[in-house]
Amino acid sequence: MTISNTIRTAGPYIGNDVTTAFPFYFKIFKTADLLAVQTDVATGVATSLVLNSGYTVTLNPDQNANPGGTATLPAALATGKTLVLTSSLDYLQPLDITNGGGFYPSVLNAALDRLTIFCQQLFSLASRSLKFPLSDTGMNTELPSAAARANKLLGFDASGRPIVAAPVSGSAAEVAIALENTIIGYASSAGSSLIGWISSATGSIIRTVQNKLRDQTSLFDFMTPAQIADVQAGAKTLNVSSAVQAAWDWCVPRGIAMQVPPGIYRCDTTITKPQSFFAPVMFGANGKSSVFDFSNVAPGSSGMYIQGGSGQLLTVEWRNIGFSASGTQVAIEVDGQCGMMFNQLVFSNLAGGFLFHNKTAGSFGEYLVGDSCEFKSTCLKPLEYRVTGGNNSFHGSGLRNCLVNGATGYPVVTVGDGCFPYNSPLSLQLWPQGGPVTLVQHNGTVSTVPAIFHGTITLEPSPAKLVTLGAGPGVLLMDVSILSVNENWVPGTAKLCEHITLSANGQFSLLRRPYTISATGITTGGSVNADLAFNKNAGVKTGTLLHITARGANYRWSTLGVATIAAGQGGSNTFTKIVDTIPFNTSGWGAPVYTLDASGNVVVTNAAGGFSVTLDIAVSQIGYNLG
To answer: How large is the C-alpha radius of gyration of the chain?
Structure first.
């Protein structure tokens, strides 16, 4: 039969989310001869569908009298899609005419129809191709090799012959090629360096997009797409330690701040900053969404270790970041760095939050401050000072405006033996969880190396959750204000002071706040250590107002006087009585006599037989450097 039309395509059919069957009206021999191409209108991407899965074909029974059939999609053609049908016969000749065989017209007609279809397919291709006019003769239309064409433009020379040429520097064509290479290669940064950007601010100067983007560096800049997806999902299936370390290695020596986008960053090894006068600067979204997780770091180790160059004050800051682990790790260890501010950090499931550790020989850490941080009750030790190889100084290092949910059995602040935190901030709101809490545990063994803190302590204890301000053998001086809901706190070993002065040789003098000491079973000649001699550490005389009450059977006698501590300063310790009050004396014991011994202890004598009392001594320091 003859093929009486030249049409070799059907469509394009427009998707409407309803139609699934699409007719075609050209002859083919079998279902595999039909090609279906679907195009996304928005992107222009065309996709050849797969027969029997992407579409099925039903042929009209008589392809000569009624050529064509129907292509059916498994689902309606969506809005925004188009469908085109055409033939795609293989360019083969399957007819084999043999000597003495049958010579049937239908066989010859089919072979000639196949040749005609081949011509129509080729014509369809040619009609969609670039062509030279018939008048152009002698043209060489062969393109150079792929290597010679790479990153070039197709153009024409003075004679109209096709050539390839490099784009003009800075032209739109050069930018387009660079951008395409950037997208395809996923590695080049050349494209962004070719695009301009300018602020809307008056007087601003044009910059490249690349230059603008490099104003800020993100940890994601150092991660693979898979790592970024893992962090954003909070899956913690991929270890990103090497990426975070690479970010530190690049950014720290260049003084570049690092953005910590929201997500959970699983770090299986300690992130380390080597010894230098630089330190990391990091800021996240907030302490509950930008979180480092150190659960797989070795127990007892630190998640982040910062080794300083001591003696140079930095002004670096961390802000809005969270830290978590498996309960046996420390979040941040600082070894001899000076001048770091840690703002609005959140700590949970940790053995420790901050470890200020003078570890390297000669190192000292000063002005290291955790400000407005939150320590969950699962962070056992919010702050620890430690010396193992460096200097003892932790000048100005501590906590300020922090919220501490105190863990039962663990101190909020631990001062190791040999550590000397002084002028150190200690301002926080303490909520004990579960039981009694110690604010500062001072394990020092040298009386001339105290721990000196200043600030405001707000306590929220219930009657069953006693707060002890100080514990341990070390000397603990606190110039702090105590705000408490129900007064359920005791000073412990803390010496509360009005002010504290350090001399050039490191000794100190101070004015202490009033305090009371009681002792029972005191007989004539007995003494009570009222902690008076402590105030002469700076080599100065001190004066203290004592209100002493002796209480016994049928006996109560109060004495007001002044104690002067001058032993070792060219004088002796003395007690000068101002007045006695006698509210109750039926025992007949009479007035007690008080003196101070060389150690500053209060000694009581009374000649009456059977004298045995409880002494309550209220101490109010009235000055030092007395003549």
So the answer is: 44
Give me 533's structure tokens.
Answer: 């001699």
Fold of 221-506: Pectate Lyase C-like (2.160.20)
- Kindly give, in sequence order, each residue whose CB lies less than 8 Å from that of residue 117, ignoring residues fewer than 6 positions away: 3, 8, 27, 28, 87, 89
**What's the pLDDT tens digit per position in 181-200?**
554 444 455 667 767 888 88
Per domain, the residue ranges of the chain are 9-95+104-127, 149-215, 221-506, 514-624
- Residue from 372, 268, 264 nearest 322 by CA: 264
Would you identify the CATH topology of the domain 514-624? Immunoglobulin-like (2.60.40)
Q: How far apart are the two ends of the chain, measured CA to CA in Å? A: 134
pLDDT of residue 186: 46
pLDDT score for 1: 60
How sure is the predictor about 347, in pLDDT bands with cuts at 50, 70 and 90?
very high
> Which residues neighbour 230 within 8 Å (Cβ) at sequence distance 6 or greater?
236, 237, 238, 240, 266
* Exposure b/e, 16-42, CB count within 10 A at least 16 = b: eeeeeebebebbbeeeebbbbbbbeee
SS3 of residue 453 by DSSP: strand
* Cβ atoms within 10 Å of 470's Cβ, excluding its own: 26
Identify whether 12 is preceded by a cis peptide bond (ω within 30 of 0): yes
